[in-house]
Structures are given as C-alpha cells and as structure tokens.
C-alpha cells in the first residue's frame, strides 16, 4: 500500500494515463524501484560494453550502443529480478525490447534522410544554385560534370498530372457511390464488393501495373516498342485510384447526415445535395486525400521503367515519344555506376562547352535527383496536412 | 464555379414551397441530373471491377504466346520451358519476401505496441507520423540508400554470421565483399514493409476493449501481462493479416531488389552468397528494356503469376481484417 498516494493524483488524467496509475497501484504488494535504478543499470551496461569493446580493440559508437543495449537487457533484467521479482523484471525486459524496436525503425529513416540530404545538396548548389534543376542531359556523356534534371522534373509532373486527371474523377465518383448510393439492395452488395476489391487493389505490385499499361497499349496500337508518357499515366492511375477511393470515402463519411437530410428536406435533388452540400463540406479533406495520393504515386519507379522509357531531353508531349522521369533517372544514374575519366576536360558535342570530368558524377546526380524527389514528396505531404488543418470545416462545437 | 454547376438544375432551384409537389412527381419520373449522377457513380464503381479484370485479361493475352509455345504444353524439347524459367524466380521472390517478413513483423509489432501502449499519449501521434514518413519515401530512394549506404555497413555482420554460423545452410557458402546478396535485399525490403504492418497492427491493438485491459490491470497484472493476456490474443488475427499485407508488398517490390541484389537463378538457400537469387519483379524490370517479343511474353507471364499470387494473399488478408474490425 505504499504507492496508493499516486492513484488519486492521477485520477483526473485521460484513460491511458489512468492505466499507469492503476498499474503502479497494483504493484503495491511488491517492491517497485524508482526510475533512476533503470538509469543506473543502463549506465553500468554502457560502461561494461565500453570496456569490452576497448579490450577487443573494436570500439565504435554504433557497436557501443548495440552491445550496451544487449547488456542492459541482461543486467537490467537480472537486477530487477533480484530486487523486484520475476513479473516486474519481465515487464521491464519487454518495455526495453519495445523501445528498442522503435529505435531500430528510426535508424533507416534518419540515416536515409541524412544521406540523401548530405550527398544530394552538393550537386544542387554547384556550380550555380538550381542549375541542376534547369538543365537537361542533352549531350552529356561519360564523366562530364554537367547535366541536370529539368526534363525529368517536367516529365514526372506531367505524367503524374495525367494519372491524377484519370484517377480523381473515377476515384471520387466511386467513393460517392460507396457513401451515397450503396445503401440498400443490390447497390449495397455491389458496394461491398467494390470496397473489398479496392482494398485488394491497393496491394497490386507496381510492376504489374506497369505491365498492364504496356500490355494494354501494345494490344491497342499493335506496336511492341511503344513507350509514351500517357502509358505511364494509365499505369500509375491503376495504383492511384484505390488510394483516392479509400481516403475520399473516409472524408465523405465524415459529413454529418443532418446536412444531407436538411438539403433533402428543402427539396434539393440528391445529386445537387451531393455536389453542393456533401462535396462542399468535404472539399478540404478531399484535397488532402488527392494530394496524398499524388505523393504516393509520384515516386513510383517500376511502372515508368516499363512504360515511358527514358530520354535525355525535354519532351512535353504525353502522347508521343519517350519521357524522362525522376525515379527512372535515379535508377539509370545509379545503374551507370562510376564513370571513367580518360582526360580532365570533356567537351559537350552539342553545345561545344568544356566541362571537368568526375568519376562519381553519376552517383552525385542520382543523389541530387533523389533529394529533389524527396523534397517534392515532402512538400506534397506537408501541403496536404496544412490544407486539412486550416480549411476543414469545424463540425464539432 | 458553383454557379456553373448549378445551372443545369435551374428548374429545381425554385423556392421550396412550390417545389414540394414537383419533388413527389419527380420521384417516380427521376430527375435527369440524378440519373446521370448515379449512373456516373455506379459506372466508376464498376470500372474498378473492370480494371482488375482487364489487368488479368491483358496480361493473359500478352503472355499467351509464351504459354502456347512452352515445353509443358507442346511437349517439344526445343521449346522454352516456362516452368523452368519461372520456378527459380518464384523461389527467389518468396524467399526474399519471407526473410523480409521474418525481420519486419517482430519489429513492427514492437513499434505498434510502443505507440499504442507504451509511449505517452501526447507522443503517440507524432511517433506514428515518423513511421508513416518512412512509407512516404519513394522505393527508388530506398534502393539507392540500400545499395550505397546499407550494403557496406552490413558487411561486418555478414562476415561474422558466415564465419561463426556458417554451418547453418542459410549463412553458408562463400561470402565476398560487395554484399549484393539476398540478405541485404531483404533487409531493405523489411524496412519498406515496416510502415504498412505497423499501421494495421497499431489499429487493431488500439481497438482492444478498454474494459478488459483495465480489468487485467485491476487484477494486478503488469503492463506486459496485460498485453500478453488481453491485447495480443485480441489482436492475433490482425497481426496475421498485417503480415500478409506486408508479404504482398514484399512480393511485388521491385526497386529495392533491382538496385541491391546481384541476380542469379538457383534454388540455393545461401542468402549471403552473391548471384544466387532473383525476384519476379526485379527480373521484369531489368530485362524489359531490351526484350524481344518472345522474351516480353515470358516476362509478362511471370508478371501474371505475381499478380495472381499477390491478389490471393491480399484478398485473404483483407477478408481477415474486415471480419475482425466488424466483430
């Protein structure tokens, strides 16, 4: 009964906080140690692992953290087992494991963001800021320290725009059907089937979507070598439609029934109610949904690899000729690997300008393009959240 | 904008009182606006069915030449053996996905528990957002990161595993420096499927009946005992279906494998050895650029196999999810 004083203090906290209070209260029969015992065992584990690593001569910070974590699992468990008993020792052990799982997941996230930023920023600001975004790859050969991704940025934006123009009407009308029409009888059955298929469709591998675009256009045009931007748009829309449907369905379901009933009560036809009341109310959420769907497909690589090919110059025609996109550009630059430099100066055969030669230029371009792509995706994500934050109607009071 | 939308409906824009009789009349006659709108909605819904059917049909049409001329059907020894071509790819695909799953599921369940039950309430949403951020990273960037950053850093671990645990077939074989092997590829895959598994598992864990949890705590259970006796049994089917969704993702992921793995076509178990495996998706991506129509037909056939596989797995997973969330 030592810790019962904690319970009334925490009584006013929300449910999850309340459970902590209950838990500490329940351990009253056993000894519960304050938090600094945990810090102490962690400190011991770190010191021990540092000593071991120094003795082995393989000291490094990652190794210290890793070994320290493992040792802390053992030391902390043993200590707690002796002082607090088996059940609480197990609890501490699992808590530590769960925190470790989260920390492990943060390694790829932060290392990836850091690598892309630190390796990509150089090419974006040299030789002149944004020159990389405003030039294309025409005449760039070997290890020539030149070239840019203007054609790839434009290509990515155009193809994604095409996919959006296909997916948004279909996706929006499908979600309207699911929310507004699929209420009784055969329509309800159909609605359930569609919901299920849309869910399954979200799991279609992107490469299969690309093959579909390819197979569709080869069959229609009878030209096995056809590669045009619009094929990419069609392939991407296969991936985009399900995300648009799911998220806009959620947004439409948030519109209160009373608004619709008020409109019906005034004699407004159903379709006009949907356009003027339901969509009007949900417009912010729908914008968010569409933006997030765009952000999802704008980085897709595999379908574009199959359907739009690649080209070193700007092509703004979605319906004729190959196009370059950012993801496939990253892939091809990465695939090209290190360049060979036979001389220090290389001349662009088209413009006649001399450039320095760099062996790592392909990787530099890949990282800079990756940074550009990540910036685009993050801007879309942030824009989506800002729209939903500022423009969503305040329904609750 | 709204006025242009309203113009076609101007007959219905009369003040409410006189509109009432026309409404009842129109209920039987159906307004043209309503007919068009519901038609569009139902049409779009049906288009979803159509799209999935079309994916299957067009892949089948384009891969038909490969099926027709395969040795299995014609009995001709000179013909291409489709099964021999597809089997190692299917093996590699399944192996990569299972390895990724093996690494991702325990961590994802841990993260889901962390966010739903361990982290302070106020931190849960931002921490969940961090995991979602991982899902927003394009796959090609994961491939680049995996190929350039991760592969050299996994080297010491793989050498260690090969040296000390080499007697396990999985870690056996000859291991050489650029670790462009199955193990590296599946580590990248595991990172990529982590967000989806975490998201679904977290949703299920958060649906655990509060009263049961509080009952367990009131009986004196520790947090872990509560999770073991209440949360995990409740969320078991959710974890299973989340894993299957992750499996579906891992089976179809192209870029991570294409950019990290150096391909081969054996049935080897040695995941640390280079040039042993390849996956369907990566194989399609690497060969499609310079494929003759014959090769293309075969590639499309492997794509069809992948589509059917992932479709079935996703269908089962979604069926489990919808059943558990309903009850």
TrEMBL record, chain A:
Record keyword Membrane present: yes
Transmembrane segments: 42-72, 93-114, 152-182, 194-220, 226-245, 277-298, 366-391
Occurrences of domain ABC transmembrane type-1 (ranges): 153-384
Keyword Kinase applies: no
Record localization: Cell membrane
A Pfam family it matches: BPD_transp_1
Top-rank taxon, per record: Bacteria
Main location: membrane
Region entry Disordered, spans: 1-20
Membrane topology recorded in Swiss-Prot or TrEMBL: Multi-pass membrane protein
Sections of the chain in a coiled coil: none
Signal peptide span: none
Keywords: Cell membrane, Membrane, Phosphate transport, Transmembrane, Transmembrane helix, Transport
Family (UniProt): Belongs to the binding-protein-dependent transport system permease family. CysTW subfamily.
Family matches, as PANTHER family: PHOSPHATE TRANSPORT SYSTEM PERMEASE PROTEIN PSTA
Function: Part of the binding-protein-dependent transport system for phosphate; probably responsible for the translocation of the substrate across the membrane.
Designated name of the protein: Phosphate transport system permease protein PstA
